[in-house]
């Protein structure tokens, strides 16, 4: 992506449908309006102050979102969502996934400012509305469907059905799944997991290695011949947890031309931060430090992007003090420039690197 290309953000991870089915949060409504409705309710206490809303996203130049279908296995206490996203069997996982798929279908049918990106033509149509001479009132945000946790895929060959529904990215893990080890539950790729990767490659789908256990991650990086991202993972240097990536994992991802999305969540940016420390204890400069860490480690700015996970079990009170809603992501532009990054590098970090992966996948590369 050249520096003359208009700058915009691609957010590689947002749980839009999860928030609708769990908390009745309508993505089309401003995050600030949601807060007013949810003030001092169980939702605000459990999920935090809402950050996502289409009006703020468009104002903040978030042109494309990788929007998840996220299902949660029962028995993981405390649960992030309600019964609508929980499952005990693959069949229940599929039902929960289909419910979230329906949320997106309704959004695409009812909201002219949203478009489902399923192919290169869809992507080009969305990006055309983000040219510098297009009024903000005419901008369209594109959503690419990302399945986080592959258990709703009943068996590997059933991925074809999900692909037909518009899923273009799959993260096999959350905790451990039938397909691989995951966060807090180590394990290898299972035979089903290896088969799923083969099926996904036939459709040129993007593999999302976030949440995969280190053993599964490294095997998948070696095994998968298609496009790879880690949609929402930070360097383990900042948060020493198996939820994040070691230096070796980051380097291996970069060697495969992969991209990782930095999460601006205080708990993922520090080994010591807790909610009692308050929002102001972390600043946007820590986000820039995490981005810069990746760039310095791999020797370029081509393998890092943004994957906010906003409203994914935490709210504005758990993000750096400058970030109130998704609109404030645009502050990263100036912060990166101040750090010394060129316009080309800033363009790539904000959106261009994830765009490269998406374009390659949609073209069947």
Structure explained in plain terms:
With 365 residues, this protein is an alpha/beta fold. Helix content is 38%, strand content 13%. Strands 1, 2, 5, 6, 7, 8, 9, 10 and 11 form a nine-stranded parallel β-sheet that branches. Strands 3-4 form a two-stranded parallel ribbon. The radius of gyration is 19 Å and the shape is globular. It starts with 8 loop residues before the first strand and ends with a helix.
What is this structure's SSE topology?
Blueprint: E1 9-14, H1 16-23, H2 31-38, H3 42-47, H4 54-59, E2 62-70, E3 72-73, E4 86-87, H5 90-110, E5 114-116, H6 120-128, E6 141-148, H7 159-164, E7 167-171, H8 191-202, E8 206-208, H9 214-223, E9 228-230, H10 247-255, E10 259-262, H11 284-298, E11 304-306, H12 331-339, H13 343-362
Parallel strand pairs: 1-2, 2-6, 3-4, 5-6, 6-7, 7-8, 8-9, 9-10, 10-11
Helix pairs in contact: 1-5, 11-12, 12-13
Q: Tally of extended strands?
A: 11
Q: Characterize the main sheet.
A: 9 strands, parallel
How many helices does DSSP assign? Answer: 13
Helical proportion? 25-40%
Amino-to-carboxy terminus distance? 17 Å
Order of helices and strands: EHHHHEEEHEHEHEHEHEHEHEHH
CATH architecture: Alpha-Beta Barrel
CATH class: Alpha Beta
What is the number of domains? Answer: 1
Q: What Rg, in angstroms, do the CA atoms define?
A: 19 Å
CATH topology: TIM Barrel
* SSE-based structural type: alpha/beta
What fraction of residues sit in β-strands?
Answer: 5-15%
CATH superfamily: Metal-dependent hydrolases
